[in-house]
Amino acid sequence: MSHDPDVLVVGGGATGIGTARDLALRGVDVLLVDRGGLCSGTSGRSHGLLHSGARYAEADAEGARECIEENRTLRRIAGACVAETGGLFVSLADDDDEYFERKRAACEEIGIPAEPVDPDTARESVPNLADGTERVMRVPDGVVYPSRLIAANALDAEAHGATIRPHTPVESMTVDDGRVTEVRVGGEMAETLAPEYVVNAAGAWAGQVAAMAGLDVDMQPTRGVMVSVEYDGLGPVLNRCRDPDDGDIVVPHGSEAVLGTTSVPVNDPDDYEQARWEVERSVEECAAMLPPVADAPVVREWWGVRPLYAPDEAERGGRGISRGFFQLDHAADGVENAVSVVGGKLTTYRLMAASTADLVCDRLGVDADCSTADRELVAADDPERLDAAVAEFDGQGPTDADVVGESD
Fold first, then answer.
1. Which of 33, 78, 202, 238 could form a disulfide with 209 if both were Cys (CB 3.0 to 4.6 A apart)?
2. pLDDT in tens, 7-56
3. By the 8 A CB rule, do 164 and 29 touch?
4. What is the spatial distance between Cα 58 and Cα 109, in angstroms, rounded to a whole number?
5. Residues 188-213 pLDDT 10s
6. CATH class of 89-141+222-306
7. Does the reported pTM lie above 0.85?
8. CA-CA distance, 398 to 408, in Å (whole number)?
9. How would residue 104 be classed by pLDDT, with cut points 50, 70 and 90?
10. Taking the CB of residue 190, how many other CB atoms lie within 10 A of it?
C-alpha cells in the first residue's frame, strides 16, 4: 500500500465489507483487512436465512421491522446473492395456538405479510410436511448466499476505490494522546499504517481486536450447528412456530436442505467443542416438521459462532429475543478515532454498515449520504462473475458451498 487510508476496516464479513462499500461510495479512501479469506468468519457459516422479520415480530418489533425492510432491499439490489423462496411458519400439535396468533398479529402490526394457510394448501409446495401440522402461516422469508453477497460488496467497494486485502491480520495498534496512531498488519501486506479512523467489524473476534487498542468490548459468542442433507426441491423455508429453540429451521438449498440450529456459549471463537448431540438434536427437531430429513444422507456439517455482545446477552437473559447490533463509539472510552460494531444479523448487514459509515463520515467531516439501498451490487445478476470473485477473495464459506460455482 503506497499511502495510509482514511479508514481502516478490520473484518471481512458482511458488516465489514458492507461498511467498506458504503464508505467508498461516499468517496472515502478505505482499506479493509481480514486475517483470513473474506467471509471466513460468522457470515460464511450461517444457515443463510434471509429474515422476513416474522421470527422476531412478537418479541422485538423494531428488529423485525429492520428485517423486513432490509429483506426487501436485498431483493432489489442483490440479484443472484439471494433466492426468493418464501417461508412457512409451522405449528405442530404440541405447539401453542396462542403463540401462533400473537406472531400473526405482531406481523400484521409491523407490516410483515403473514398469511394463514390450510395445511393441505401448504403441502402443495411442501408435500412431505408433517402429518401433525395443525396451523401454517406464509411469510416472505428467503435465502441469502453469503459468499456471493460478500464478493459482490467487495467488487463494488473496489470499483469505487477501496482496497480489499484478505490474509492480512492486524498484529498490533498504537494509541497516543487518545487516538489510534499506528496499526501494524502482517500476512500479505506486512506494513505499519496510520489511518485517520479505525472500524472494528471483527465479529466474534471484536473483543480481541479492541484489546489491541486498550479497549474493552465484551463479547459472548455462542456456537450453532448446521446440517446440510440431501433433499431436492424443498421450496420455502420452514420455521417451527414456537419460542426459538434448537432445531427449528429448515432452509432450502437446491438439492439440499440446511437444518439448524443450536445456541451454546463458548469462551473462544477459535477453539470450541463441536458436540454430536447438537447435530442429532437439530436433525430430530427439524424432522418433526419435515420427517424425511431424519434419514436423509448428510452432505456436510458446520458450526458458526454468533458475535453476541455480552452486556446485551446478560440483559436479555438468553435466547429468544432479536439480536440487534451495537455501535460502540470509542470516543467515550478515550480513543476518539475508533468504533466497534458488533451483533446483528446477516439480513441487516447493510443497515449496520450504513449506520457505521454515517458515524465515520461525521467524524471525518465527509458530507455525503448513504446510497447503498438504491444501488444494485456489482455483478449482482452475473453468477459466474460473482463466483469467480468468491475464489479471488478466498471467500467460500460452507453455507453456500453447494450453490457457488453451480452456474459454471
1. 202
2. 999 999 999 999 999 999 999 999 999 999 999 999 999 999 999 999 99
3. no
4. 10
5. 999 999 999 999 999 999 999 999 99
6. alpha beta
7. yes
8. 18
9. very high
10. 10
CB 333 within 8 A of CB 200: no
Cell 405447539 -> residue: 95
Burial class of 131 by CB neighbour count within 10 A (0 to 12, 13 to 18, 19+): exposed
Candidates 147, 97, 81, 90; CA nearest to 117 is 90
Other C-beta atoms closer than 10 Å to the C-beta of 229 total 24
Q: Label residues 261-297 b or e (16+ Cβ within 10 Å = b).
A: bbbbebeebeebeeeeebbebbbebbbbbbeebeebe
Inter-CA distances, 205 with 114, 170, 218, 228, 308, Å = 36, 12, 10, 26, 10
The distance in angstroms from the start CA to the end CA of the chain is 34
CATH of 7-43+146-219+322-392, one of 3.50.50.60, 3.40.1260.20, 2.60.260.20, 3.40.50.450: 3.50.50.60
Residue 397: all three cell numbers together? 464459506
Delimit the domains of the chain by residue range: 7-43+146-219+322-392, 89-141+222-306
- Rounded to the nearest 5°, which phi and psi values hold at 351? -65, -45
Tens-place pLDDT, residues 230-281 = 999 999 999 999 998 999 999 999 899 999 999 999 999 999 999 999 999 9
